[in-house]
Amino acid sequence: MVGSAGLACGTLRLSALFGVLGLHLLSGGRLYCYTRDMEERIRKAIEGVLADMGVSGGIFVVERPTDTVYGDYATNAALAVAKILGRNPRELADELARRLLDVLGDSLVSHVAVAGPGFVNITLSREAVTLALAEADAKGTEWGRETIPVAQRVMIEYTDPNPFKEMHIGHLMSNVIGESLARLIENEGKTVIRANYQGDVGPHVAKALWGLQKAGITEPATARELGEAYATGSRAYEESLDAKAEIDALNQAIYAGGMHELMELWRKGRDVSLAAFEQVYTVLGTHFDYYFFESETAASGMRIVRDGLNRGVFEESDGAVIYRGEKKGLHTLVFITSKGTPTYEAKDMGLAFLKEERAQFDRSIIVTAAEQIGHFKVFFAALEEMAPMLAAKTTHVPHGFLRLTSGKMSSREGNVITAAGLIEDVVAKASEKNADPLVAEHVALGAIKYMVLRQAPGSDIIFDPEKSLSLEGDSGPYLQYALVRAKSVISAAAESGATTAGAPASPYLLERSLVHFPDVVARAARELAPNLLVTYLTELAGEWNSFYAQERIVGGEYETHKLMLARAFVNTMSNGLMLLGIPTPERM
RNA sequence: GCCCCCGUGGUGAAACGGAUAUCACAACAGUCUUCGGAACUGUCGGUCCAGGUUCGAUUCCUGGCGGGGGCACCA
Questions:
Q1: N or C: which terminus of chain A has fewer CB atoms within 10 Å of its end residue's CB?
Q2: pLDDT band of A534, cuts 50, 70, 90
Q3: CATH number at residue A184
Q4: What is the pLDDT of residues A404-426, one digit of tens each?
Q5: Looking at the domain assignment, is residue A555 inside a domain?
Q6: How far is the CA of A107 from the C1' of B33 (A)?
Q7: Does residue A400 contact residue A452 with C-beta atoms inside 8 Å?
Q8: What is the pLDDT of residues A315-373, one digit of tens each?
């Protein structure tokens, strides 16, 4: 990514190594970090050659070839511009390849070849791969990270469980995805502000309080009690008109805040819920900078909406205040009910302004379930009319559902899988192989987070509680295990001492894959897609395991080189797992 | 009814318009005189249907079929 300066490389121990090849100063005049910008560097070189030919604009891609035999980088540039220039693609590719080799130089590239309809494939030199490896080894936890701070503040809201209800696996999904996005963005040198927005007022709270009152509970002590009270209230709300009226009255009373005993019960219940949530956050490894509550966005949201009503953004209809989305091809949304209570939308309006007031940011990301896509579209349309700048810097990232093979989850039907319950079950499974409870927890979290992060954020996960949480192949523990074994080899080598120098003329697949880590991480952050990193790490772990099975490391040929490779792998896997929020156990 | 998303081997997923569609699970066959077998090697098997755009389509467009979500006082 342009904008990430690379001078930090010069301060590293490997600055001496750079002397071998010389630092590459590109047309933009900035120094490039050796590996972090490899893709960018190749892209610039292609752009330069194309500019010479009279074509501008980046209408081509630089990617990893489909097959490693093609090389380390591939571009479709010749194919893309052949038509514009009215030239034969192969012929154009030949010229591009020749000039690219010239521009990039022998020390960086061993050969540039044309293949297929006109792809240009670039293969890095042994020297270049070794240098990248040295960087991966030397940089440690900074390998793959942007070390120059970028002046950008990004607020990211995720998890969003509702007090008085239990935190279920949907919230878990939001948390896992949101936390990984936060880490990926931080890794780009930006400042991340983690926010959690919790619905502590509204009909669901009224239902829970009603349930508590009916059960005569004045001192709720567990999240489970609250969950049951909510289920009771929720059922009564639909089955009995009397109960419905009582609950509606409670809802309004909570907003008004006048009834002392009721508010006391509300406060106690809320505290119990929040404390239970906090335990789950600790296990998951999340720490929020800001907590927002619907109880604090309700009043301001109402005020903003009423203001918008005067300005003609909203209108009144059947006693409710609505936003007519139809004027923008969307649908109507109620912001204030005819009973005078704010809906989710009014509170969201209050939240949008409150967020900016408390923590100034350049960008705001909201992670929620995909079912809210429609609401956000209309909400953003309304926000755009109220505060265009604020709307412009806000993005909604929807995530899919964790769908049960046995049907849809429902709090009323009691087939909700709670976040804590799921973690507990998987920890129990992991304990069969791990006596150490902390290791079992790390493995379990690895399995759960991997399952959530492995696929594109928007799509659903079909979850079979019985069998879909794999601890083998294509799983979190697979990555953790590869890491543990690599660490184990390194400590075994430390004891033996003897070394053999040199390196094989053509790099191992593992080495060539390691080079791409910084680019993969940058792309995952740019596209808000942790799954790209998951796919890469899975492939990398497989390559490590193959390498490990085929090559003798300690006491073998090229031992020094292989140990550097092992350390580079450890750094890559550790940093990669950290970015996913997956724990890295020392043993398992 | 209208709007949005999704249809990839038996199952769950990947593929920023490119090359012989990638990976895991399952099934089957192998690897243990070895630095950790939660591993490695191999076999089997796939783009919902019909058109279109393109040198090139899993990807973009149109229509169908199938699944999911949303569509005013829930969040």
A1: N
A2: very high
A3: 3.40.50.620
A4: 665 445 554 456 788 998 899 88
A5: no
A6: 43
A7: no
A8: 999 999 999 999 888 999 999 999 999 999 999 999 999 999 999 999 999 999 999 99
What's the total number of domains in chain A?
1
Measure A390 CA to B24 C1' (Å).
Answer: 43
A159: CB within 7 A of chain B nucleic strand: no
> Rounded to an integer, what distance in angstroms lies between the CA atom of residue A230 and that of residue A237?
10
In this predicted structure, what is the pLDDT of residue A200? 94
Domain assignment present for residue A240? The answer is yes
pLDDT tens digits, residue range A211-240? 999 999 999 999 889 988 998 998 899 888
Closest by alpha carbon to A286, among A563, A584, A581? A581
A470-485 burial, b at 16+ Cβ within 10 Å, e below that, comes to ebeeebbbbbbbbbbb
For residues A359 and A366, what is the distance between their CA atoms, to the nearest angstrom? 15
Provide, in whole angstroms, the distance separating residue A533's CA from nucleotide B35's C1': 28
Structure tokens at A33: 């970090």
The answer to whether the C-beta of A92 is closer than 7 A to strand B is no
Nearest nucleotide to A197 (CA to C1') is B75
Q: Give the closest nucleotide to A375 (alpha carbon vs C1').
A: B70
A374 touches strand B (CB under 7 A): yes
Q: Which residues numbered 181-200 in chain A sit less than 7 A from strand B, measured from CB?
A: 199
B12 C1' – A107 CA distance, angstroms? 44
